[in-house]
Amino acid sequence: MSAAAARTLPSAAATSAAVNPWLIAVLVAFASFMENLDTTIANVALPYIAGGMGVSEDEASWVITTYLVANAVSLTASSYLAQRFGRKSFFLVCLAAFTASSVLCGFAPNLQALLLFRIVQGLGGGGMVPVAQSILADSFPPEKRGQAFALFGIAVVVAPVVGPTLGGWISDNWSWQWCFEINGPIGLLALALFAGTLRESEAAAAERKRFVRQGHQFDLVGFALAATFLGALEIALDRGLEDDWFGSNFIVATVTVCALAFVLMIPWELSRRNPIIDIRILATRQFGSSFLVMLATGAILLSTTQYLPQLVQAEYGYTATWAGLVLSPGGLVLALLMPVAGRLSGKVQPRILIAIGAAICALAMLDMTRINGAVDFRFFAASRMLLSVGLPFVFIPIMTASFAGIPRNKTDMASALINVARNTGGSIGISLANNVLAHREQFHQSRLVELVNTSTTQYQHAFQQAADYFAAQGASLAQARQQAFAWIGQQVQTQAAYLAYIDVFWVLMLISAAAVPLALSLRKVKLGGAAPIAH
């Protein structure tokens, strides 16, 4: 594509006419915050949802799975639909669907209805974020993109952190329904602001008509294959542990469908003139490396956001509110450092910033391996803050680096793929942490039980101390001995859980460290000036 041709393409800046681009940035960041908030706001509310619906927590977890699957499916179609119907129209439809389905989730009479509304919510939310990123990429000149992405990054990265805190507080003090219903009035306000602010220029309208005249048909087969691949992958990752992985016929069938869809998707998409997913973009060194780094970033962000509250609730007795508050200091650090990372991304090569940020994230995960029964709220908050120091210097530069060399008419596609990487990376990270936690807890428990030898002096001394304690509390001698035996068993389980969580953080540390050489493989980009043009 020539530079001259690229300059004739209408940008989203033209869509806004005379409106200040920073106002548009605030609005799209606000809408993206709503969508990303719903990826985690229900996590700590699952016990409440299970109790309210009269189902098991395992069944209630489909509330998370269905949203992620629908979100991933919607992402693949967002590029074509935004070009076909216009970014403003598509964005408003997605926002309206997200808002309406959010309210309906709160009024769902049973689990089946709730899952249906969550699917609609995921479809609407999945279409918003990539279009928002495309609007930002084209609304600002290259030298200002870093700052614009910083504002967007605050919404995308802070929202999953705020989700558990807000969801826990709402569930503890109001009801789980309000985790969804809160989007109603906020969504209506956002719709009104967007409808009154965004304007499509004559050039943008002409480009959309040209897109239709050129016969750009929706790649239905490609969409079906991509949706099947991503949907089956999400389901397998989420349900694998609960269903005993390949010991389950359901998981075997799901993985088979996933692999088949992937194998068929690649040659089909490579042979299309207008594919739903441009495999050639993924095959480039710059975007491919950016995609992999975003996979790792999503894995670290979403897995720690889920497992840190779970750890403090299960092993330290925190309430849902306090479990969410553990993440809050990190959210504040993210909000403060995102603008700093945005400014630096226009002055320092993205690969340098990403490598530094990934190294800090690895250090934060290494710090979390020091957990034990004596650590307190300050330890968890401080470790989360250290992680939050690194994340902005990965997230913002990777957004800038991924768009380098991408033609303007491919920014919607690139944006969708980067979001697929973040969501899929999150699912992979959570699934990996799930499996490490379950298997390593069993391993550590079996090894610790071997050490609990009733004939050793250490065991007899600990047993006698515990029995004396329970006897001093008023228990009979027989009861005190039973309670002492149960207490020792509980200590073995607790220590096994601590060691398993430590193993989880070791794995996440390795994932963070792996992003450093990937970052250094990125090519240099031109900082400021004209946008790089792909040929």
Question: How are the elements arranged and paired?
Answer:
Layout: H1 3-8, H2 12-15, H3 21-37, H4 46-53, H5 57-60, H6 62-85, H7 87-106, H8 111-139, H9 142-173, H10 178-181, H11 183-197, H12 202-213, H13 220-239, H14 249-270, H15 279-283, H16 285-316, H17 320-325, H18 328-344, H19 350-368, H20 377-390, H21 392-403, H22 411-451, H23 457-472, H24 477-520
Structure in words:
The chain is an all-alpha fold. It has 4 domains: 1-217, MFS general substrate transporter like domains (Growth Hormone, Chain: A); 220-271; 278-433 and 506-525, MFS general substrate transporter like domains (Growth Hormone, Chain: A), CATH 1.20.1250; 443-496, no CATH class. 79% of the residues lie in helices and 0% in strands. It has 24 helices and no strands. The protein has helices at residues 3-8, 12-15, 21-37, 46-53, 57-60, 62-85, 87-106, 111-139, 142-173, 178-181, 183-197, 202-213, 220-239, 249-270, 279-283, 285-316, 320-325, 328-344, 350-368, 377-390, 392-403, 411-451, 457-472, 477-520. Helix 9 (142-173) runs parallel beside helix 16 (285-316), helix 16 packs antiparallel against helix 21 and helix 19 packs antiparallel against helix 20. The termini are close together. The relative contact order is 0.13. Mean pLDDT is 78; it is low at 1-17 and 529-535.
